[in-house]
Amino acid sequence: MNRKLLLVYLACFAGTALADAPLPPPTKTVVCSHSGEFCAASDPGTQMTSITRRGVPGPLWAIPGWQRWLIVTDDGQRVVIGYGGLNLVPKEAPLSTPVPLFYGPAGLIKSVTLGDLYRSTAEMTETVSHYQWEQAVYLDAAGQLVVERVDGSRVAFDPNNGARL
User: What are the residue ranges of helices labelled H in the chain?
Assistant: First the structure.
C-alpha cells in the first residue's frame, strides 16, 4: 500500500472518529511497508498480527492481539501500532495513555504516551465525548515516525527504538 493511499485510509477513519461515531467492527487488516516487501496482517479471529516478507512462506514474527491500525517499516523489523480508538481518546484518558507503540521481533520496544506529545489535555481538540490527539501518523521519507499533533506541529520518533528526535 503506498503512503498516499494509507494517508487517505487514515483520513477517512479520522473523519469518522472525529464525529464521535462508533468504530467499525474488527476486520482483518493488512498493511504493507512503503516498498511492499513486508506486510503485517492483523486478524481479529486469531487475535494475532503476523509480519511476513513477500515471497517467503510463513510469518517472520508476530505480535499478540488484533490491531485496528499499524505501520510497517521498510526493513520489516518494526511495526508501529496505533491507539485502538484511532485519533480519539476518551476525555477521562490520562496523559499516561499509550498512543503509538513500537514493536520488533522480540516484542514491545517502547510506548509513546499522550504526555510525551502534550503537556495537558487542553492542548488537544475536544469533540463531543473525546479528545482528538493526532491529525496524522506516518513514516516520512527518512523512515522516521511522524505524529502530526492537532495544532499542526510534528513530533518525530526513531522507529528502531521509539526515541523522540
Answer: 3-18, 114-117
CATH, residue 70: 2.40.128
> And the C-alpha cell for 87?
485519533
**C-alpha cell of residue 116:** 510525551
Is the pLDDT confidence value at 74 over 80?
yes
Domain membership flag for residue 103: yes
Whole domain around residue 81: which residue ranges? 3-21+28-157
Nine-digit cell string for 137: 501518523
Domain-embedded: residue 162 = no
Confidence band of 23 (pLDDT split at 50, 70, 90) = confident
Measured in Å, how far apart are the chain's first and last C-alpha atoms? 26
Residue 64 falls within a domain, yes or no? yes
Backbone angles phi, psi at 99, to 5 degrees: -110, -80
Closest to 1 (Cα-Cα) out of 30, 24, 27: 30
